[in-house]
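Appendix B: complex inputs.
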Amino acid sequence: MKPRDRVRALVEHKRFQQFIIWVIVVNAITLGLETSPVVLREVGGLLHVADHAMLYIFTVELVLRLYAHGWRFFRDSWNVFDFVIVAISLIPASGPFSVLRALRILRALRLISAVPAMRRVVSGLLAAVPGMASIGALLGLIIYVAAVMATKLFGTISPQYFGDLGTTLFTLFQTMTGEAWPDIAREVMAAAPLAWIFFVIYILISSFAVLNLFIAVIVSGMEKTVTDDLVEAEDRHAADQAASDALILAELRELRREIAELRQREPR
Amino acid sequence: MKPRDRVRALVEHKRFQQFIIWVIVVNAITLGLETSPVVLREVGGLLHVADHAMLYIFTVELVLRLYAHGWRFFRDSWNVFDFVIVAISLIPASGPFSVLRALRILRALRLISAVPAMRRVVSGLLAAVPGMASIGALLGLIIYVAAVMATKLFGTISPQYFGDLGTTLFTLFQTMTGEAWPDIAREVMAAAPLAWIFFVIYILISSFAVLNLFIAVIVSGMEKTVTDDLVEAEDRHAADQAASDALILAELRELRREIAELRQREPR
Amino acid sequence: MKPRDRVRALVEHKRFQQFIIWVIVVNAITLGLETSPVVLREVGGLLHVADHAMLYIFTVELVLRLYAHGWRFFRDSWNVFDFVIVAISLIPASGPFSVLRALRILRALRLISAVPAMRRVVSGLLAAVPGMASIGALLGLIIYVAAVMATKLFGTISPQYFGDLGTTLFTLFQTMTGEAWPDIAREVMAAAPLAWIFFVIYILISSFAVLNLFIAVIVSGMEKTVTDDLVEAEDRHAADQAASDALILAELRELRREIAELRQREPR
Amino acid sequence: MKPRDRVRALVEHKRFQQFIIWVIVVNAITLGLETSPVVLREVGGLLHVADHAMLYIFTVELVLRLYAHGWRFFRDSWNVFDFVIVAISLIPASGPFSVLRALRILRALRLISAVPAMRRVVSGLLAAVPGMASIGALLGLIIYVAAVMATKLFGTISPQYFGDLGTTLFTLFQTMTGEAWPDIAREVMAAAPLAWIFFVIYILISSFAVLNLFIAVIVSGMEKTVTDDLVEAEDRHAADQAASDALILAELRELRREIAELRQREPR
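Resulting structure:
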């Protein structure tokens, strides 16, 4: 057994994988505890040491898996996911990268790649994404067009909400989630009374597009389960039917064979 | 007839169950009336006596059912439901347990276990829950990760919303219901202009997960009704087809029998 | 032709019904115009006269239909709908009944009963209602229990929202529509920090129930259209199959007849 | 080759269409950049020239397509869409028409008509519209009736929200999107305590109608995909079945032919 195969046997061993899952869970809890100033003051040093130890375990595990699978490691997108998450944690989080400290909790998401049941759920969810792509692109185009228009029309009236393209995009995203849009609309309408036309049309079109995004997901979910059930039921019946037809055909051929015999024995 | 069987016959008698349903309804009304200070001042004593009397009825009914069914009583989860609700009412509601006084109205929920039609509806709703479990767990993980991240990132900027993990979890639950999130986002963005990235990503991912929770329920509802209708229709046709095939086969076998006779009578 | 039959021929005549539809539309517009003080000052008298004239037309139409159909008139619920709407307009709207003046616009809803396409749409919508009844009753029970509980728990903390049962029911309806609940929750949580438990549970349960109400409607809509399409396709195939089987059977019987002939001609 | 055919070959050439798509994308970006005062100050002149050049390209393209297709050009609604969008840009945007400057970004929507995949998505979305028309009309009627009623009832109580028919229509549209209605309701209820009846009934009826609008779209989406899948599966089985039946029939007819031969050779 080559050393590479032995390492692969190790990293694919059930016990090893369960150990990693436990480390992920414990790390998620310690990172959660670190958010509390009280806990940090009391046992902050301990948490810090534990966090470093667990990061060390993750790094070693990743190196072993890299060694075991070689370059094919990166062919599986779940491996790439694990690699990126561990890599983020290894970047020294100081100075301009201090925001990365907050991203360490992303390690808890490794639970998704480590637990097969979670993996299946996420794969199922992602399967619906391609069906959403074209409507998503259309929705993006609609929001962009609406944002340029609103910035030009309302930029001077309400700079807080429509001051520049970025602000307007955020405001329109907020409007699309249906949140607090009347306040914004009434503020704009005080200066531009016809602004309601923009808001009503934008809300109707964007809700219609979002609704169709939802339907794309629902239909995709339906196709996976309901349709499969029915097609399966139908296939079962078709198989029954084919068996019954085969029986009839066999009976008919036997009959023909017997009649052929009858003819041969016949006096000519 | 053993005494236990007689008690069982009593508690399963239609009249007895209708009487209990009426007591539940009357108790729900009296507990509702108790919320009014005016009513409480006028007929508070009467309501109090009635409430005690009805709790006594519920307790006696429960003891009878316990006696009738023995330990098997706890195998039916509806019985456990009834038991817990009555038990809550029997705990003396004073001192630290004064909140239990407010839980007495939970007795009205016994209507669900007492009326068979309600029981069926709730059973139907609960049937959708297992299908939601895996996406629910994923959603929980996403919220936890987002909460730890937000507490670290925005804890000092906006302690009112992101001060500690509990507060952040509540804020993110609120954001997930799509309520008043722009106020929070704009408050945070005043200090951390890039915070919109967190909010937009969180809203998109959590709505997508919630949407898929909904779809799990819809698909489960579909499978129960639409699919059943169709599979039933198909089974009916398959049965028709099988009957027709059986007719053809019988006819064929009769034919074979006749030809066999023909051969036997033939001169060799 | 009896006078009653002649009246019936009149009220069922296409021209007559189109005339009534036009009167309904014109009346809806004049009642809309009456809401404008400017219009009322300028042509208020004219609108008043027109409104009286149109109410007169509706009354005459109703009397004619009543005469034409006799008591069977009230068997059709659309007729009862028309009758109630016209009756509301005929009650003198003064003193305590002045609110009835605002209900005159309900006459515009007669468009639904007068236009067959609208009637079909509304009938279709109402067909979904029975399927919603049991979940609706459950939702009502949940809201009632939550309201009694919230009034007891939060009545003294936040009398504005939970002061008495009626106020609480309105607050909980508002919470169920997902509107402005965080403001209320945060106000209550300032005094009762654990109140989030009530709000989170109530929101989860009530959204789940509302979601299932939606699904009941969706499934009902599905059953009417998608299932019908499929069952129809299946029935068509079953008919094709039955025809094909009948052909096979006929062929088989012909064969049997011929063999029987063969046997009779045979020398014994 | 006639000149008209040569022009048609040009405008339908893949390279030409890709060039137009690139111009649309670049124009969308330059129009987006124009919203930024900083960019406008730095390279405003350049953007202005580029914008004019690109409008010139669009105009020439449209004239070529008009020449190539003649009057049949207007038979395709996508062509009409392109024509209107370019025409809007050509109207001198000054004085009362200055709002048209903001509509120039609508040119970016030409991406929908230029990219075939986008065209298909939008055609798919629009296919759901006829199924929504009747419920949409009903919803319009309900909102109109509710608006006239609310203006009469609450116009003097809360002129900000219900002052005239237009304002009320906007308020009711806002209420239908479920946004900030409790603030409005509580303001009105302070003067008219029974106003909750209006709000609760309006919200229930309008959400039910909107829900059914959604279902019309979902059912329409379902019919296009799920049903097609199933009907296709069923058709495949029916074809299999028909082939198997044809085999049985052929076998039977062969048998009959042989028996007929047998009879002819028989001694009479």
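Chain C touches chain D through 58 residues (CB under 8 Å).
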